[in-house]
């Protein structure tokens, strides 16, 4: 009797393993893998790059410290997988930005819309970056951040100060936003998604 029960159990046990294998096989075959797109977030220190990164990742404002080096996160949005590199914006770190350019499809430049005094520096850094060979095919999204602050420059003002209309080799777009609330960020991603569809 014990031998009979043992044989019956072994039959069901094998069947169970077979069913499990079939489920695993089906799951592996139907798993959706989103294409990966590399983005670099650049801008001067205190522009709000890291706040934007984590607002996109978590959907909330996160208290951040100045980035030393870089942060990298994977953000999945509307069947698109973005690997976002957030690069420190202090003067001593900007010379290292070019080490992250390889295979970057998009540049997101974050500008502090209240920082009128350093907008010229942002312009210089932007045009130097766009001249780099590794970014010859990259698209540019400018986030005009901190629009919630009274007296901040409009996206049109920032566009003029950055000489965006002079950029002919790179598709570009400027988007007003507020990193703390997330307002405007997804409109920027929609523009990126539209560029991906055109490729």
Automatic annotation (TrEMBL):
GO terms for MF: GTP binding; GTPase activity; metal ion binding
UniProt name for this protein: (African queen) hypothetical protein
Family: Belongs to the small GTPase superfamily. Arf family.
First and last residue of the signal peptide: none
Binding sites annotated in the UniProt record for GTP: 43-50, 89, 145-148
Superkingdom of origin: Eukaryota
CDD domains: Arl5_Arl8
SMART domains (UniProt xref): ARF, SAR
Source organism of this protein record: Danaus chrysippus
């Amino acid at each position: 009797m014990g031998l009979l029960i043992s044989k019956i159990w072994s039959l069901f046990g094998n069947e169970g393993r077979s069913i499990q294998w079939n489920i695993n096989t089906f799951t592996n075959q139907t798993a959706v893998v989103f294409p990966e797109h590399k983005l670099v977030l650049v801008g001067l220190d205190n522009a709000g790059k890291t706040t934007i990164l984590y607002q996109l990742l978590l959907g909330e404002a996160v208290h951040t410290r100045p980035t030393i080096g870089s942060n990298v996160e994977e953000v999945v949005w509307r069947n698109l997988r973005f690997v976002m590199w957030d690069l420190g914006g202090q003067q001593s770190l900007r010379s290292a930005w070019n080490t992250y350019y390889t295979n970057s499809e998009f540049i997101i430049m974050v500008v502090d819309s209240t920082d009128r005094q350093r907008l010229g520096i942002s312009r210089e850094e932007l045009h130097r970056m766009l001249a780099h060979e590794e970014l010859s095919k990259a698209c540019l999204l400018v986030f005009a951040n901190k629009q919630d602050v009274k007296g901040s420059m409009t996206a049109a003002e920032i566009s003029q100060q950055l000489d965006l209309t002079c950029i002919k080799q790179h598709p570009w777009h400027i988007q007003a936003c507020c990193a703390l609330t997330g307002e405007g960020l997804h409109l920027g991603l929609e523009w990126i998604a539209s560029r991906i569809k055109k490729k």
